[in-house]
Each structure stands twice: as structure tokens, then as C-alpha cells.
Amino acid sequence: MKKVLIIGATSAIAEATARLFAKRGDKLFLLARNTEKLTVIARDLKVRGAKEVFTGSFDALDMEAHAGLLDSAIAQMEGIDTVLIAHGTLPDQKNCEASAAETLSAMNINALSVISLLTHLGNVFEKQGAGSIAVISSVAGDRGRQSNYVYGAAKGTVSIFLQGLRHRLCKAGVHVLTVKPGFVDTPMTAEFPKGPLWAQPDQIASAIFKALEKKKSVIYTPGFWALIMLIVRLVPNWIFHKTKL
Ligand SMILES: NC(=O)c1ccc[n+]([C@@H]2O[C@H](COP(=O)([O-])OP(=O)(O)OC[C@H]3O[C@@H](n4cnc5c(N)ncnc54)[C@H](OP(=O)(O)O)[C@@H]3O)[C@@H](O)[C@H]2O)c1
């Protein structure tokens, strides 16, 4: 039994992952903005085998409240073994291009709020000298592309932050996992036409669960995205700039 904190617990990927924690009989603390939806999810996870399920209201943008919320969640669970940070939004790239406010708002939710949480959690985990910190970043953070570079910049920021945090915390015996999903069929991407590259939340959840058990550092999920992104990163600018990616 592990004590697991899930931030952004109403996300489809987070919910699917929480089901795997529940099946293992874990004690869960779920933080999310939509508390009505959260109550339904919490009840379901209890039925699925979670030892105990606590819930709390969380607005990622209320960063002053982060430290207090995290401390209170950890106190109620009487400790913490694992945290999964999952909240995020997919900003409209064109709106961001037209408005600095839109761009900064997208960076706040997808990058700065995560960094705020990680700064506090990093100290908590370093002090206890054990545990796993997992964050859902994205393949979009691997290279800036014209079609979604605001989201990509936020996720890239998170990925680099995690890289440094991992370097620091490995000395304390703390595991830091960066999750880089490709296209996933969730409410965030409801309006996109789906194709063969698309995965379901359950697939991503299973990859996260396994990567936590094996203490992996970075995963691309599904795994074929590692090859796709290797190619995307390697394509020279003179070719890349001719694409509409
Ligand atoms: N779907 C994809 O293709 C894909 C690909 C790569 C990475 N990701 C990442 O995967 C993670 C999970 O997303 P998902 O695909 O599972 O989408 P989702 O089901 O739409 O989940 C997004 C979650 O973020 C929460 N959220 C948004 N703004 C928030 C705020 N200000 N405060 C608190 N919570 C907030 C939403 O809460 P509400 O329920 O209150 O709106 C929702 O629970 C995200 O970080 C996303 O960037 C997704």
C-alpha cells in the first residue's frame, strides 16, 4: 500500500492511473478544481479497492495556496510515497499569438503552477529521502513547432525543470518521472479528429504505473513516440521550416 497524491485528479489520464493505484489498495489524496466530479471519482476508486480516498479543492492558478494544500494533504494521509501532477490545458495557439495575456495564462497553468508545486514537493521529498514524483509533460515540449509552440514551451519548461530536479533529488534517493504522452483521446482533445497515432487514457495510465514501479526517468507513451520525437528533434531547420507541423 502506497500513499499517493494526485493533482488534477479529474483529468482522464489521472483518473485512469488512479484506478491502478486503487486496485493495488493504495491510500489516495485527490486534488482537483471540479469537486463534484471529484466526489464521483473518489467513490468509484473506493469501490475499486483504494484503502482510503481523501479529496480536496485545488485551483492550479491559486499558487499562494499550494504549499498549505500540499502540507494538509500529506498530513491527512500521514505521509506521502508518490505524487502525480496531471492538470493542464491545451491553449489555442492562434489566440495566444494574438494576445500576450493568453500566452502568459497558458504558461501560468501549464508551466508555472507545476513549478510552484514541484518546488514545495521537491523539498518535502528531499527531506524524507524517499518516494516518487511523476509529472505529465508532453512530446510537444521536445521541439517548438508553429502549430502549438506556446503549449510546447510550457511543457518543455516543465521537462527541463524535472530534469534538474531529478539530478538534485537522486542524491536523496527520490525518483522523478517525466511522462511524455503523444496524442491521447481525452476531453482536452475532444475536438481533434482521431487517427492511428492516438492512444486511450488507459494505455497512458498503464505506462505511468509501470514506469513508477521501475523507477524510470523519462517515458514516451505509447513508446513509438520516442522514435517519432527523435526524428522531429533531428530534422535540420532548413527542412523543418518547410513543414506545416
Ligand atoms: N490529451 C493529450 O493528447 C495529451 C498529450 C500530452 C500530454 N497531455 C497532458 O496530460 C495531462 C492530463 O490531461 P488529459 O489529457 O487527461 O486532459 P483532461 O481530461 O482534459 O484533464 C485536464 C485536467 O486539468 C485540469 N485543470 C485545468 N485547469 C485547471 C486549473 N486551473 N486548476 C486545476 N485543475 C485544472 C482539469 O480540471 P477541470 O476538470 O476542472 O477542468 C482537468 O482535470 C495534462 O497535463 C495534459 O497537458 C495530454
Share of helix, binned: 40-55%
pLDDT < 50 stretches: none
Strand order of the largest sheet: 3-2-1-4-5-6-7
* Molecular shape: globular
Kindly name the structural category. Answer: alpha/beta
Strand portion? 15-25%
Query: What separation lies between the terminal Cα atoms?
Result: 44 Å
The SSE string, one letter per element, is: EHEHEHEHHEHEHEHH
Question: What's the total count of β strands?
Answer: 7
* Total number of domains: 1
- CATH architecture label name: 3-Layer(aba) Sandwich
Mean pLDDT across all residues, rounded?
A: 98
Bound molecules: NADP nicotinamide-adenine-dinucleotide phosphate
CATH 4th-level superfamily: NAD(P)-binding Rossmann-like Domain
Q: Please compute the radius of gyration using only Cα atoms.
A: 18 Å
Biggest sheet, open or closed, and with what strands and sense? 7 strands, parallel
Describe the structure.
With 245 residues, the chain is an alpha/beta fold. It has a single domain, classed as Rossmann fold. The protein is 49% helix and 15% strand. It has helices at 12-23, 35-47, 66-77, 93-98, 100-128, 149-169, 201-213, 224-234, 237-240, and strands spanning 3-7, 27-32, 52-57, 82-85, 132-136, 175-181, 218-221. Strands 3-2-1-4-5-6-7 form a seven-stranded parallel sheet, with helices on both faces. Helix 1 packs across helix 7 (201-213). The termini are far apart. The mean pLDDT is 98. Bound molecules: NADP nicotinamide-adenine-dinucleotide phosphate.
